[in-house]
Amino acid sequence: MEKLSEQGKLRPWMGVLLFAAVMAVFVFAFVPLQLNLGIPGLVITELGFLVIAVVYCLIRKVKLTEMFPIKKVKVREVIGAVFMVLGMFPVSIMLVAISALIFPSATAEIDELNTFVYGSLGFPAAVLIVALMPAVCEEAIHRGAILSHFRGIKHDWVIVLIMGLFFGINHMSVLRFLTTMTLGLFLSYVVVKKNNLLLSMIMHFTNNLISVVLTYAQGEAASANPASANYTAVLGTYLIIGCLSPVLITLGLMLIYPEGHKKIKFLWAGILSAVMLVSGFGITAYAGSQNVLLNSMISYEVTEEQQEDSSLYFDVEEERTATVVVMVTNAEGGYTVRIDGDSGSNIITAEIPEGGVRIVSYNVTLKPDKYTVTIVADDDAVGENPQIQVTIQ
Questions:
Q1: Torsional sign, CA 174, 176, 179, 180
Q2: CATH of 294-392, one of 2.30.40.10, 2.60.120.380, 3.40.640.10, 3.30.870.10
C-alpha cells in the first residue's frame, strides 16, 4: 500500500492505541449520549468520529490529503463499487442469520435497533443520518486515521484483516459482528489497493442506503418480532437470492482494480455460486420440513373476472409465532397477499415488491383459528400466469 510521506510518525502500535482510544470514547461518551438523547446522540457520535480523525491528523502533523486521500473516481470504479455492494448485501444477511442461529438471544437487538433508528425518522432524515453520515465519518476514522498507521506493513492482507476486525468490534454487536467485519474487509481492501477514501465512502453509503430503503419498503414488517423468525429458513432463502454474490463481487473487484484481476477468479466465483445455490435449496427444504403450517405453490391465470385466488388454507390449533414468506415469479404486474382468519382477523395485507426477486417476509403471531391466504392481482396483471410460492412455518 502507498505510504505517507510522514509514515515514520505513524506506527502500527500507535494505530492500535488510537483504535483503543476511539473505543473508549465510544463506550464512555457516545453510547451514553445515544441512550439519553436518542437520534441527536447518534448524530453527535458520527460527527465525533470525524472530529477525532481530523484533530488527530492535525496533532500528528500529517497532511490531511494523505491521511484522508480523496481522488477523482472513474465511472468504471463507481460501477464496480455498486456491483460489490450488491454482491455483499445478501452475504451480510446470511451472516446475520448464521449469527442468530449461534446466538439466538441476540436477535432482540434487531427490534431495538429498528425502533431506535427508524422509530422517529422520516425517510430523508434516515438517508442522511443512517446512510450518508456513517459513510463519511466512519470512513474518516477507520479507513483514514486508523488505517494510515498500518500503511508500512508489507503484506496488504494483514492491513485488510486488522481493519476488518476493528470495524466489526467497533459496532459492539454479537449479531452484526460478522457482517460489519466483512464490510470492513471489503472497504479496507478498496482503500489499500486504490488509496482513495472516496471509493470506500461510496460503497459504505450504498450499503447503508440499501438497508434504509428495504426497511422503509417493508413497512410494518420491519417492526415485527425478530425473535420469532426462522433464521434457518432466512439463511436458505438468502443463499438462493444471493447465489450470484460471488460473481458480482468478483466483477466489482475487476472494475475497481483491473490490474490485480485474473480470469480464473470468475471460475472460482461461479463454483462458489453453484455451491451457495445448492446449499440454499437444501437448507430451505430442511427448514421447510420443520413444523410447517403451509408450503404450497399457487399458479393461475389472472383475468378480469378472476383477479383473486383464495385456494390456500391452514389451521392453527395453539397460539404461536410464524414466519410468512411469499415469492412471486413469472409476473410483472402488481400483487398483494392477504391472510385472514375465519374469526375476522386480518394478519397480513402486503404488496409484493417489484423487481427481479419479488419476495416479502413477515414474522407474525397466529392465534387458534382457520386461515385463508388470498392473492389479489392488480388490473395491470390481467393476462399473466404468476407462480406464487407461499411458505408459513
A1: negative
A2: 2.60.120.380
